[in-house]
Amino acid sequence: MRCRRGPWPRPPYSYPSRHAARSAAAVTFLSALFPHRAQDYEWMRSEVLYSRLYMAGHLSSDLTAGTLLGDLIGDYALATSGH
Question: Above 50 in pLDDT, residue 62?
């Protein structure tokens, strides 16, 4: 099986998506600050996740792990900033 980005085979492991983590952290943090825009932020995050899956950059498990990690980061940022 060949990887789309090069001639070398796709590795047998996966990792959390950085795009998913950053977008989830932003949604968590911004939704707490601006609750009236929470739906907009959720829509933006879903667009980011879909683009990663559609372009074959990650597996769905990578996106799930990245989203969970981002939610934790967002919660930590809220807790340490006093919000």
Answer: yes
